[in-house]
Amino acid sequence: MGAKKEIMQEVAPLGKKISQAGTLSGNPLAMCAGLMQLQMLSEPGVYQRLDEIATRLAAGMRQNIEQLQLNWTINQVGGMLSMFFTEQEVVDFTSASSSDTERFRRYFWEMIEQGVYLAPSQFECMFPSAVHSEDDIDQTLRAHYKALKVVH
Predict the structure, then answer these.
(1) CATH number of the CATH domain containing 56
(2) How does pLDDT run across 97-119, given as a tens digit for each residue?
(3) Among 29, 35, 78, 144, which one is most buried in terms of CB atoms within 10 A?
């Protein structure tokens, strides 16, 4: 964090008007990792690769859902995707709230059992990485299918 001297003097612990806190704020390792991440994201084709990975995952997840004759929702925007345990289209918080969160809880733990860690909330999305391999995607889709079989 940085600003003019008169502003910085108001930031705690020197001042009492502005509080600034964060788990990794100013941590050199976190700063270095953030800088490296920005440099990697500026490489040509990285966003296309993220989109391709997410598209492949979303298509495979839809295929698994169809094979099991389920009617749950997959949303994807660029390199982000999410499966919702609801039959209705998810376009906002209200429609997302129609999701079966108890079923998601069971799905989450089943995916853990299959070796795939997801965000632990029905209302978070997946952020595939540009370093995920084709084998990683295949493993995730196999785990997804097995998990759906258990929780449906």
Answers:
(1) 3.90.1150.10
(2) 999 999 999 999 999 999 999 99
(3) 144
